[in-house]
Amino acid sequence: MGRRPVGVREVAARAGVSRQTVSRVLNEHPEVAADTRERVLAAMAELGYRVNNAARALGTRRSRTLGVLASDALQYGPSRSLAAIEARARGAGYWVSAAFADAGDAAAVVAAVQHLVSQGVEGIVVVAPHARTLDALDALQIGVPIVTLHASGRGMRGLSVDQAAGARLAVAALADAGHTRIAHLAGPADWLEAESRAEGYAQELAARGMPDGPVIVGDWSAASGRAAAAAVRDLGVTAVFSANDQMALGLITGLREAGLDVPRDVSVVGFDDVPDAEHYWPPLTTVRQDFDELARRAVAAVIGEAAAPRDPVRPVLCARASIAPVRAGRPH
After folding, report:
1. What region holds the HTH lacI-type domain (predicted)?
2. For a surface tag, which of 152, 171, 174, 319 has the fewest beta carbons within 10 Å of its beta carbon?
3. For residue range 42-91, what is the model confidence (pLDDT) as tens digits?
4. Domain span holding position 185
5. What's the CA gap between 272 and 245, in Å, rounded?
6. What is the pLDDT of residues 235-275, one digit of tens each?
7. Inter-axis angle of helices 34-47 and 19-26, to 10 degrees?
8. What integer is the mean pLDDT of 199-208?
9. What per-residue confidence (pLDDT) applies to 50?
10. Is 50 left (phi over 0), alpha (psi -120 to 50) or beta?
11. Prior bond to 211 cis, omega within 30?
């Protein structure tokens, strides 16, 4: 048989205090002396005591739980954000309860939020890359603090990485290498971040007095990037800004199959800086998003810490080997 979990009684005996004092320490009561608190915490650590959040909630009317609603957790950005939110919440002494809903089903989004509220969550972070999710949320009276991520800053609740600024960094890196015929491999039209990255692409071209470039729409997958290679070849462009790293990976493969070398014939820049990006061949120049900072701001906002900055998080360019100057004799 397994050993019975350590309880408040054992902690109190080890620390030489009453069970009521242990409960006060657990519930962060302000009238516990500092040395007593330290003694109780040390006893918990020595005995391997684990806090029972459900039991503590009964006594404090606080669940110490945050809700996370994800409408699409399969792509790198949303999934990375979920992990970062959980880590930040745990570090602040909170648990995370997650719910998932199809962004295209408004009733499912509403039901997921209501489910989280029924769990007694103290705030909700919504990973909302689709406009449809925001529309469903706007119709709700939720009653707890709520923030949205991956919505490109849309709405009053939104926290985001500056997607358009990241796209401009990518296009600028290609233009600075001498490229003037730059295509955009875009993400799906119903994703807010794909829309913002396409806007940034067009803004940087316009700011440099360059004509609009061709836009090829993918679906975030490497397979769609590989399929786009034929269009890139036929268009005769010398550079491509891909809206994510996975499509860039597929594009590089497809270009090689078409007899084109990256970066000698076509330069490629991605977006996200997935962990494998520096191990692509060639290592991929890409735009890095600070998901940890985004999660820090989101958790701070919903638990009522000092006001989290609402300005977008600035992305950074990770320069690697997938860009080369335009080859002599090849049209720009």
Report:
1. 6-60
2. 319
3. 888 888 776 655 445 444 456 789 999 887 777 888 889 989 999 999 88
4. 163-290
5. 6
6. 999 999 999 999 999 999 999 999 999 999 999 999 999 99
7. 90
8. 98
9. 65
10. beta
11. no
Q: In CATH, what number is assigned to the domain containing residue 215?
A: 3.40.50.2300
Who wins on pLDDT, 279 or 147?
Answer: 279
CA 305 to chain centre: 21
Mapped onto helix, strand or coil, the DSSP state of residue 225 is: helix
Q: 12 with 119, same domain?
A: no
Burial 285-307 (b: 16+ CB within 10 A, else e): bbbbbbbbbbbbbbbbbbbeeee
Q: Which two tokens stand for residue 83?
A: 């992990």
Predicted pLDDT of residue 22:
83
Identify whether 23 is part of a domain. Answer: yes
Residue 309 in domain: no
- Tokens for 231, please give them: 């269009």
Residue 221 DSSP one-character state: S
How confident is the model at residue 269, as a pLDDT?
A: 98
Cα 160 to Cα 254: distance, rounded to the nearest angstrom: 32
Question: Are both 175 and 107 inside the same structural domain?
Answer: no
Q: Are residues 179 and 250 in the same domain?
A: yes
Residue 110 sits in the same domain as residue 173: no
Helix boundaries (H) for 151-221: 163-176, 192-207
Record the tokens describing residue 5, joined without a space: 């979990």
- Residue 58 pLDDT: 44
Give per-residue pLDDT as tens, 4-38: 567 788 888 999 998 888 877 876 677 788 889 88
The burial of 259, by beta-carbon neighbours within 10 Å (0-12 exposed, 13-18 middle, 19 or more buried), is given as exposed
In a domain, 144, yes or no: yes
- Residue 233's alpha-carbon distances to 175, 215, 226, 240, 323, in angstroms, are 19, 13, 12, 11, 17
Q: How many domains does the chain have?
A: 3
Given 127, 159, 191, the domain boundary residue is 159
Region for residue 272 given its phi and psi (left: phi exceeds 0; alpha: psi -120 to 50; beta: otherwise) = left
Read off φ and ψ for residue 160, nearest 5 degrees.
-160, 165
pLDDT at residue number 48: 79
